[in-house]
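pinned: reference chain
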Amino acid sequence: MPETLLVVDDEPAIRHAIVRAFPEMKVIEAETCEQAMVAIHEQYPDVVLLDQRLPDGDGVQLINRIHTIDLELPVILLTGAGSTDLAVDALKAGAADYVEKPFKIERLRLTVRNLMEKQHLGRQVARLSGKSHGRVSITAQSTAMRKVLAMVRRVAAAPATTVLIQGESGVGKELVARAIHERSARHPKNFIAINCAALSEHLLEAELFGYEKGAFTGADSKGKAGLFEIADGGTLFLDEIGEMPLQLQTKLLRALQERRFRRVGGLTDVEVDVRVVAATNKDLREEVAASRFRQDLYFRLRVVPIRVPPLRERPDDILALAGNLLERLSGELGRPGLTLSATAREAMQAYVWPGNVRELANAIERAVIVAEGEEISIADLCMDESLPRPKPTAEMDLMPALPEGALLIPPGERNLSRVEHIVIRAALQEANGHKSNAAEMLGINRTTLYNKLREMNPGQPEESSDSWTAVKVPAAGQPGQT
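pinned: its structure tokens
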């Protein structure tokens, strides 16, 4: 996926020259300060080229506004010749560098390239040292994820609002929580995360709210501050909130409502200013109905709900995510230059990814390690849906058994064209991406299949099926289920 450059200049000729100078990058254009801010909110650029004089403001002042959104976003100021004092002011304001106008294209390219290399090196060192921090990048090629990012931006602008992030395991709920924190006014303070399912009730209470000395056997003789206190001024991320015991839910509700709490064994209240972002892979409405989750806490957490869609609902993101992961992991594991074969790419988009982005990341890491050549094959990815069936429950006993590989049509889906697309995608998956076999399975010729793929993916080349995804179909001779 190409890196993104934002150029902010009110002269069309300069913008055009910069677009032509960086063919390997995605270049976004803006003419004013306000257009630049919108682009930064919506496009997540990797570097900004900023003219000093703009119709609605001054470049140096805009640098400060940019860094309230993203402190680590590098900005290069374009100044007039001989503007030494202005260049100094820009560097003091946080500009990464400056280039004088009229500039030479090679000088500009070298400046941008050096900044990008420095940024990549810094991120790699941080990851390898276990101190990774900074701007969260969320891949959003699909409409579904763009909606998520739009909600992230809105929530970030309201730094006290409580957020409930919902989604299956592995979709990246913590990544969304971090993006909210980093794009809010709370970003200079701590982002603290805890998994509510990982600790017993008493340990979880002590971790969240802290304890006084002698509060319980084994307590630190000096007492201990809890995560609410450590996150003061910042964000506290409560993962798997649906697993929190009922008694502790009561104490959490009070902390959210009154912004104060008592340590375990304490007699006085501790006041804090913390934004709480909670996440769950459960349907909390069902938990409330089953009396396993407090209704008042549910509504208190669900001020702004954000649903992160599973990977199977956003197939347009699969190859973009895979490309980003491959670039990072191949460098870290000493296998630079690895690529995904065409069949591997098709199979990845056909696969339903039950483990979502986490499973995709694991598959890419495994492939980088085991691939023998310079291309990653389907076998290297080792995608496997043969997961153990969950233990039957009373609710499952009431459901009719489905034959292995049965095709499930979404409830209420009666559009013939969309049902046809589901069947085609499923056939492609069962045929492991081989279109001739898929066409034979569907009872059509290969040309007809290509025509239908073009209808499903307007603008794609004839020999490409890079935008289809699939679900299982019945094995030969088995009827479909509706």
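why pinned: The mean pLDDT is 82. The CA atoms of residues 17 and 43 lie 21 Å apart.
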